[in-house]
Design brief:
Protein name: NAD-reducing hydrogenase HoxS subunit beta
Number of strands: 16
Mean pLDDT: 89
Enzyme class: oxidoreductase
Number of domains: 1
CATH topology: Cytochrome-c3 Hydrogenase, chain B
InterPro entries: Ni-dep_hyd_lsu (IPR001501), Ni-dep_hyd_lsu_Ni_BS (IPR018194), NiFe-Hase_large (IPR029014)
CATH superfamily: Cytochrome-c3 Hydrogenase, chain B
CATH class: Mainly Alpha
Cofactor: Fe cation; Ni(2+)
Organism: Aquisphaera giovannonii
Structural class: alpha+beta
Shape: globular
Number of helices: 15
Largest sheet: 4 strands, mixed
Strand content: 15-25%
CATH architecture: Orthogonal Bundle
Length: 474
């Protein structure tokens, strides 16, 4: 008789989710689904709010990556004001985003995933967590905590607080970087560099223990999407979009993020609040793509900074060009921490940061605007419409975790089919299924919103997978 295995809740991720594994009569895995059961609704209740409030409101989407929303929202506001913000404001926003990448990636690697990687997928679940890591590897855990603290200090130095700073606004930023703050960040950089390189060495040392996991944790061909600079270098704040395949071939390049609706679509499934964006030219679900650290490394030509560039070369040598396994998100995350630290060091020497020209003033000059940047987990879009008084009439948010939704579902099914036999799943197997999701570092609080007014495809399936009804809204 067919039966289900339910993993509820999925642990050590941001937000609440569950996984359903459907078995056939012989006990083999027929399907597996990742469900996000929480609902937030920011896209709806923001309607009617003034444009100038949006960075502060949408930053509250998340306590882990509020800076990503703060910046994408401010950029949507810049577009509606139709202003080019002062160079110092751009560089300060970039600096804060780099601090955000460091703190978020450190949280993901050291706090969420290191217990699996260093204590073992089959380790005692009672101690396979941050506290168990602190007990077993106190110096490594301490380094991770301090690295995250460094990223938060960059944010606090600029915005006055570690979480939800009301600092970036449409037109620029509210304040600059004081000399003592710059010196404090510079003083902590050597330790941060050392920790990043310790973590990279450690990951490479233990990687050979996880060849089986790397082969089934989302190792399949998809597209990858991320921002690149005009030269094709790794980019995190303001670039064009590049889409490449698993063979490294570039399918689309220099795409304007503000025109995302021309090449991305969003589908919804009845068993999850998490939307499923896809690359429109390849349809649904053939247009599956991944975003985030692994995607950004796969689409860029170079990192643009020397230490991270050397790591990227080694990464590509080890994995023959493009990394296709989602297990490699961990590796990519550490390389990005190194890149972020190098760029922070460079930016702190930029004399523009001392400018007092930080904000462009303007009224409502356009009724629509899109802001996009690279959040730690991938490309983030804020798309607003306003009336002539600047009151919000429409919001659509496309979040990184949602863009990885199709890949996460396929990853769960791949791991389940690899490990589960005769309907039996040990705790270690179930932990591997969760770890497959953790590799993407999903942020579910960010990702569950109203459907907005994007073109949608709603698919209703019978229990045996037969398509009963399909509803499209173009």
């Amino acid at each position: 008789m067919a039966k289900q295995i339910l993993v509820d809740p999925v642990t050590r991720i941001e937000g609440h989710a569950k996984i359903t594994i459907q078995l056939d009569d012989s006990g083999e895995v027929r399907d597996a689904r990742f469900h996000v059961a929480e609902f937030r609704g920011f896209e709806k209740f923001c309607e009617g709010r003034p444009l100038w409030e949006m960075p502060g409101i949408t930053a509250r989407v998340c306590g882990i990556c509020p800076i990503s929303h703060l910046l994408a929202s401010s950029k949507a506001g810049d577009a509606i004001l139709a202003v080019s913000i002062p160079p110092a404001a751009t560089k300060l926003r970039r600096l804060m985003n780099l601090g955000q990448i460091v703190q978020s990636h450190a949280l993901s690697f050291f706090h969420m995933s290191a217990p699996d990687l260093l204590l073992g997928m089959e380790g005692d679940p009672a101690s396979r967590n941050l506290f168990g890591l602190i007990a077993a590897e106190p110096e490594f855990a301490r380094r991770g905590i301090r690295l995250r603290q460094f990223g938060q200090e960059v944010i606090e130095t600029l915005g006055g607080r570690k979480i939800h700073p009301a600092w970036s606004v449409p037109g620029g930023v509210r304040g600059g970087l004081a000399a003592e703050g710059r010196d404090r960040i510079l003083g902590r950089l050597p330790e941060a560099f050392d920790t990043a390189q310790v973590a990279l060495r450690r990951f490479k040392e233990i990687f050979d223990r996880f060849h089986e996991e790397a082969a089934c944790f989302g190792d399949f061909p998809t597209l990858f999407m991320g921002m690149v600079s005009p030269e094709g270098h790794w980019e995190h704040y303001d670039g064009t979009l590049r889409i490449a395949g698993s063979d490294g071939e570039i399918l689309a390049d220099h795409l304007d993020p503000s025109r995302y609706a021309e090449f991305l679509r969003e589908a919804v499934e009845p068993d999850s609040y998490l939307k499923s964006p896809y690359y429109q030219p390849l349809g649904y679900p053939g247009g599956i793509y991944r975003v985030g650290p692994l995607a950004r490394l796969n689409v860029c030509n170079r990192m643009g900074v020397p230490r991270a560039e050397q790591e990227l070369k080694e990464f590509r040598y080890r994995f023959h060009g493009t990394g296709t396994s989602s297990f490699l998100y961990h590796y990519a995350r550490l390389i990005e921490i190194l890149a972020a630290l190098e760029l922070i060091e460079t930016l702190l020497d930029d004399p523009d940061l001392g400018s007092d020209q930080l904000r462009a003033s303007a009224g409502i000059n356009r009724l629509d605007g899109v802001g996009a940047s690279e959040a730690p987990r991938g490309t983030l879009f804020h798309d607003y419409s306003v009336d002539r008084h600047g009151l919000i009439t429409r919001v659509n948010l496309i979040i990184a975790t949602g863009q990885n939704n199709l890949a996460m579902n396929r990853t769960v099914a791949q791991i389940a089919r690899h490990y589960i036999r005769d309907g039996k799943a040990s705790e270690g197997i179930l932990n591997r299924i969760e770890a497959g999701i953790r590799a993407y570092d999903p942020c579910l609080s960010c990702s569950t919103h109203a459907a907005g007014r994007m073109p949608l495809v709603v698919r209703i399936l019978d229990g045996d997978g037969t398509l009963r009804q399909e509803i499209r809204r173009e």
